[in-house]
Amino acid sequence: MKTALWLYLFLFLAFFDLHAQYPILTPFAISLGAGPAFIGWMMGMYSLTHLPGNLLAGVLVDRNGSRRYIVFALTAAGAILLLQAHAQLPWHLLLLRAASGFALAFLSPACMTLLASLSSDPATQGKYMSGHGIIHTLASVVSPAAGAFIVAKAGYSGTFTTLGWLLIFTGVMALFSVPKQVQSMSAAKPALPLHSPAQADREELRVSRRYYLLPFFVSCSQGVLFFELPLSQGSDGMISTGILLSLLSLGALVTLSLFFLNGLAPGIRIAAALLAMALCFFTLAAFRHIPAGVVLFLLGAAKGVLFPAMASLFISLGGPGRMGRTFSLQSIAMSLGAFAGPVAAGQLRDFVSPYFIAFVLLMTAILLLPPRGAGKPAYRPEWNSPAA
Questions:
Q1: pLDDT of residue 278
Q2: Beta carbons of 97 and 46 less than 8 angstroms apart
Q3: What secondary structure does DSSP assign to 260-308, as a single string?
Q4: How far is residue 306 CA from its own chain's centroid?
């Protein structure tokens, strides 16, 4: 539990740092002379360079543990932010965001694997994952508005410098606080009899790669939101953008705190959350008289239902010895989506509302990913239980 608390602290500081940048990156790029299409590529490039990092992280985390990669990701991303404070041209920002994307690609697989490895009990694992979501959301509630206010007081250079040193300090703390090795359920061997029904189900799920379309579509829709929301608020709307993003996270915090929802089957939660998110994006596109803050709060509430359900699904897809690879593949799918979303929105913004693009993507996800075994949990506790 002590390791989990330390990790939650590092995650809070890291997520605070990262989310504080969301409302200021687009205005900063505009101040350097970038147009909407270039901004879409800039945001997408950050996610595109996640891919080689994710591919490396999946194997390396399973082989060497999480500690060194958490420290590397935090300190390297902090150093890049210090350089970003001195960017003078749009291409400088593009290259630095690409480098930051590669460095931070190691953080999510390493942290998720470490949390899942702290216990072999499925219920405890679920609590750790819910804690991860709550910490992430708490940081994202306050950080967008905080980032906008810091820019208003210190300017872009001062803000990036402050955030960079915060990440470096967090990485140094992780170096001395995260244990080198954790006795992990991922180190254990599967204890199920050969050809048992549970093992057959596990193998079937493991090869069902269509499940990785889920984080792709979700991340793609989020990329559209983070691209379009600052542009829709205008160049002078940093503070309003930060407040709206904080409302998004506040909605997620509300549903993440409803722990009884974890008793429902992941398939049911995923389908309901996708439908709710799709309707929210359709409302943003078609009913602009409805206050955006209300819609974003509801969108965040749907996200708070979706992400713990996805965590349960991908823990069940992983199983012993494959956690790093599974979360790596999930991160790759999310990186591809986060790249495709802003790029598509930047290219098509003059023809169709980007919010409508996100609506179509999420409705497609519902069609392609119907709830599997909606009457029973996708997570099978016996997959990680000792042999009788």
A1: 93
A2: yes
A3: GGGGS-HHHHHHHHHHHHHHHHHHHHH-TTS-HHHHHHHHHHHHHHHHH
A4: 12
The two tokens of residue 202 are 């596990």
pLDDT digits (tens, 9 = 90+) for 189-213: 443 343 444 444 444 444 456 777 8
Question: What are the tokens at 198?
Answer: 């549970």
List the one residue out of 207, 189, 124, 195 whose CA is nearest residue 321: 189
Q: Which residues of the chain have pLDDT under 50?
A: 183-207, 371, 373-388
The rounded Cα 185 to chain-centroid distance in angstroms is 24
162: which residues sit within 8 A by CB, 6+ positions away?
150, 154
- Provide the 8-state DSSP code for 212: G
Q: Which residue's structure tokens are 């990669």? A: 69
Length of the chain: 388
Rg (CA), the chain: 20
Residue 297's pLDDT is 92
Those residues whose C-beta lies under 8 Å from the C-beta of residue 205, and which sit 6 or more positions away, are: 211, 316, 317, 378
Q: Retrieve residue 305's tokens.
A: 């239902």
What does the block give as tokens for 324? 């790093």
Q: What's the one-letter identity of residue 88? A: Q
Tokens describing residue 235: 């160049």
Chain CA centroid to CA 169, Å: 22
pLDDT score for 321: 55
Domains, the chain, ordered by start: 8-178+196-380 (1.20.1250.20)
Q: Could you tell me the two tokens for 221?
A: 């829709």
